Amino acid sequence: MLTQDENELLTRVTHGAPMGRMMKQYWWIPAARSDNVQPDGKPLRVRLFGENYVAFRATNGKAGFFNEACPHRGASMALARNEDNALRCIYHGWKFNVDGKTVAVPTQPSNEAEYCKHVPLKHYPVRESAGIIWVWLGEGDEVPDFPKLPFIDLPAENMVVFRQKVNANWLQAVETTMDSAHLGVLHQSWLVGFGDIEYSSTNMAPIYHVAQKPYGFRYAAVRELKDHRNYVRTNAFIMPWYGIVSPNQAEIKGGSAFFSIPIDDENIWYWQITYRTEEKLVLNKTHHFTDADSWPPLPPGTPDDNWGQDREAMKNGHFTGFTQMLGTEDFAVIQSMGSIQDRTREHLGAGDGAVLAVRRCLANAVREFMGGKVPTLAKHEDIDYSVALPKSMVVEETLDWRTTL
Prior knowledge:
This protein folds into two domains: 29-135, Rieske [2Fe-2S] iron-sulphur domain (Rieske Iron-sulfur Protein, 3-layer Sandwich), CATH 2.102.10.10; 156-404, Naphthalene 1,2-dioxygenase Alpha Subunit, Chain A, domain 1, CATH 3.90.380. It contains nine helices and 18 strands. By secondary structure, the protein is α+β, with helices and mostly antiparallel strands.
């Protein structure tokens, strides 16, 4: 368990909390799906770390990212006209181009051009890759390197990208992603006939082997099978929120990336990218959605009716009673913990090895940051993210799978 102070340090990301300041300073943040902003289309309201922003795409196709409040009188720039590679506030017509420069202040009676130079518009660097608009929200001019994560710059046909807004603290979702022990328990009804991953339900008590890496850590969850073989899943945690998880079959080259981006202390965007490194992605039953900004489905009910759990389905053989989708089961349990889980009351065991490793990475990094240092795990120029590839395999007990770490 954690102390209350430790839990606060790891979970709080708003109002100047150290964890939030560290993340904004040293990591690029997934802010919006690229498809949600069209040239000269309506600006998109974005809330991250308890602050409000707008994302938009200019006439020339370039994405921009500003504070939502107009620097003049605070009107929302989501209401702005998007035209001529700029946003024009509808309140007084002040105009700001996609590069973050004030180019028109029609209410200024004289010296307009000079006055424009002194308007304090807050503009943020953006990058686009993997169907996502990424933003750097740090202070100063030292923009961190953009990390070449395993799915970055792959062809669009090699991946699928979607997300869901969830009422839960960001760390609850990260810990769930890295918790391989829950896989064969919580998701057992969904794993039937879904490839090698079904072995997770054969042995629900994996043995963890953790290897520290420059980006975070890799771990193998090893499950002993009854026929003198082992089912091995090697996953990676990349600071500060990425879980790179093994595919459902050993022959697949690729995996899934899950990342929980704080909207504020009590809400997240839970992103998923399933990708293939060498071929077109063949969609499976978890990818058939109509809205990429609302998938997988949230639990259908409220806490007062157990989040809509279907007890009749449980009587008929479904383990959890959340029959909507595999991810719905994750959302149900992380929401049931409360908006911010009280980790002072938990009782951990051997099946929580990867969860503890996540906490150690985060705690060490934020303490380095609070001490005035660049966190060791944030030195992107020294990190090869491309090697954080997940693998799954069924091997003979005598085979040394440790080379995969």
